[in-house]
Amino acid sequence: MVKTNYSGLNPVVVQALNNLQYRYSDETPEMWCSRVLNNIEEACRNEFSRINVVIKNLQNEINQHYAIVQRSNFDQRSVSNESEANSTNESETNSRGSLTNPSSSSSGSSGSSQKFANIISVIRKQFTDIFDRIKGANDYSLDQMCGIVSVDILSRLEMGVIGKDTIKGFYHGENLNSKNLEKIGAWIDNTHLHRY
To answer: Considering the domain boundaries, does residue 112 fall inside one?
Structure first.
């Protein structure tokens, strides 16, 4: 076996390298160092991968808890607004003396559809406020901003596809199905959380 010349190194280090050279006689010191560094790099990569998984799980949990809190606050505001609207309607009805209104029998179904319409209008208002703020701050066109929201929902929120034209339609006042409305709501919550 050929001894490598380690001149200029600390004698203790030289002795350690010579001992290792005997243990791994089929490897040059460079090969051995490379193998050890590769092992260390792989161990670090594995550890960082595990840490990234934990961080991603924590982010998802935080987003879920935040969404629950936001929905709870939204529900409380909706109930409060509905109570105010109902008390205003009742006082107007009582002041007119028309307690026997024939349309009052259908108020149960129209009340729930009105509540849904109110929820959609609140979501649309929040959406357009955030949408316009980001669009203006970055000087995006309407199409660019719709594309950004679409990509955010698909890739960052991982909620599936929602088309640019669907987002543009909602922005202009068109209604969405409940699945797309949920995606828009999640985008609003996530954008509030990350403060674009």
So the answer is: no
From CA 58, how far away is CA 25, in angstroms rounded?
48
Q: Quote the number of domains for the chain.
A: 2
Spatial CB neighbours of 118, under 8 Å, sequence gap ≥ 6 = 78, 81, 82
Chosen domain end from 9, 41, 69: 69
Q: How many CA atoms lie within 13 A of 7 on its CB side?
A: 1
Q: What is the pLDDT along the chain (196 residues), one digit of tens a residue?
A: 445 665 666 777 777 767 765 555 676 767 777 877 887 888 878 888 888 787 887 777 777 777 776 666 666 665 565 555 555 555 444 444 444 444 444 445 556 667 767 788 888 999 999 999 999 999 999 999 999 999 989 888 888 899 999 999 999 999 888 889 889 989 998 887 765 5
56: containing domain:
1-69
